[in-house]
Amino acid sequence: MSKKAVVAIIAVGLFVGFVIFYNVAVKKSNTDSKTGEELAEETVTPSKKLKSFLDPSGFKFSYPENVEISTKDVKDQTVYSQLEIVSADVDGSVEIEVKNSALKKIDGWFQANKVTVADKDIKKLKLGGVEARQFATGGKLLTIMLDQGVLFTITVDPQEEKSFWFEVNNKIVESFAFVPPETSGGGTSGSSEGSGGEDITFEGEEIIE
């Protein structure tokens, strides 16, 4: 190989290396120059605008409009309703299950399910005006409530997005309310109402009117 060829190869190699270094440096500079406000905009948060889901089994709740609700088809006849709430942009989910239960008191759930949680780690709250319990176990956050032989379970599986899903869960728990079956109309009729100045749309099995 001639001396000129060697020089040419070295020159090309140096040029390619410079181009790669320049591109990496520019990208890093652009990232470092982003303001805190710009970085905050890239973080997905639950929408402040809420929708309301009306379940045919007789309850409703509000949820951010940037998450989606689906109804699971369950063959278990003891299950009245099973919902899954997910986001197209954030990993994790919230599941709501309503099923028949032989429990007499909500605190009996822990022994029946062989779950041990210290009393200090169990939060007492109201779900739809009924006494409920909220606690963390197995990396998930659970809210359980027993009403006239029916067990309501809200399970938050946040993955690595605790801030997002805990806020979604708070919206659900705070707005949860019972609705007489005749009002829900089997989940096929919807209506609209305001709540705290926010736009609310009732959905029966994801049918919006």
Would you write up a description of this structure?
- The chain has 209 residues and is α+β, with helices and mostly antiparallel strands.
- It folds into 2 domains: 3-42; 50-208, Protein Transport Mog1p, Chain A (3-Layer(aba) Sandwich), CATH 3.40.1000.
- The protein has 5 helices and 13 strands.
- A 7-stranded antiparallel sheet has the order 3-4-5-9-8-7-6, covered by helices on one side. Strands 1, 2, 10, 11, 12 and 13 form a 6-stranded mixed sheet that branches.
- Strand 11 (192-195) and strand 12 form a beta hairpin.
- The chain is elongated and about 90 Å long.
- The chain starts with a helix and ends with a strand.
- Residues 183-209 have low confidence and may be disordered.
SSE inventory with pairings:
Layout: H1 3-32, H2 36-42, E1 50-55, E2 59-64, E3 68-71, E4 79-86, E5 93-100, H3 108-112, E6 123-127, E7 130-137, E8 140-147, E9 150-157, H4 162-175, E10 177-178, H5 181-184, E11 192-195, E12 198-204, E13 207-208
Parallel strand pairs: 1-12
Antiparallel strand pairs: 1-2, 2-10, 3-4, 4-5, 5-9, 6-7, 7-8, 8-9, 11-12, 12-13
